[in-house]
Amino acid sequence: MRRALSITVLSALAGLAQAQGANTAFDCTDFLQFGGNIDKTRTTFTQSPETLAWNWFVCLNQPAAAQSPDRAWETMKPSDQVYLANGTQPLPYAQRTPVPAAVLTQAQAMGMNVNRLFHNLNATQQVDGLILEMGGQVPHAQQGQAVRFQLLMGPDTFNYIVQQKVYNVNGQAALTSDLNFPSSAWELKAAWLWIGNNPTYQQQLANDGYYIAQTYYQQGSEYVVGYAALSGLHVINKLNPDWVWTTFENRNNSKYTVTNAIPPTPMTNSTGPTAAAQPVNTSFQASNPTLAQYELIGVQSNTTPTLLANSQLESAFQNQSSCFACHGTAAYSPTKGYFNFALKQDGGIVYPTAALPASDFVGYHKLDFVWSLKRAQWQR
Fold this sequence. Notes:
eight-stranded mixed beta sheet; 9 helices; 22% strand; disordered N terminus
């Protein structure tokens, strides 16, 4: 397995190609640092959030290195290599945990490229604790199986977590003030359709414009190895103090994922693409053939728009999904634990769609919108 490239090398390689804006070229060099000019980037964002979101998406999807089959975003640090089961300090950003030997053995037998990245897709639960089922045109063996998830972070997100020693719950419990990530902090959350080793199905998804990667997950004491198709991607960063929230998904997801209704119906997105995203989608899809089947659902900055969801990541609660509002509740208390953003109402639960009052967080330290910190474990 290839080790992650340093961000300096990655940025230089990314700059070899340029993402295209509506009328001007966008330089991908050092884009994770906003080209070294955050004020200029904020101005660009104000002019067209959707155009900038697409430019970021194109930069993230450039090759990780010359002739590499991996994409730039795939070299980001997976959260399972940050929040370790034993709560110890993670390896440096560019150093990945080796892929288990049993995975590589299976992969080699399947004819996979053992020098390419492998994604560990152990997560299946969405925020509400439910799964998103595959259905529709997926093979019989995949009917009812869960879409799988993965969270990754950029170098400055990782470095801040390590510096603050909040990669375990011990460090979070010892906080004496709120967290404040640097403006160059990035996080990504990916949704994947499991393929396994089915060349016909894999080709079908490739024909529908899905990006295919090498993946595995653990089932009991065994590893399941196979291919997976990228169905959705959250891309967030701290360009603004309240972060910027963008989300993309494949336009063909309704063919392969279904609701939890009886009988199931095709899964669609009720929050977008927003009116502002639609013309930008058309422009970028035309100029980026390898990404032509992905679409920007929308961009949320503070509470505008009020709702924004990815059908693959917040499928069952799209009508209550606000990136800003939910992540704004990220907080930890040594006595109360993590803040519970599932609010009781009329005998059920709802999720916040606007910022909660500061009085709700008395006794908590805010985690600066970064809910991935909840994956941390105690170091004992």
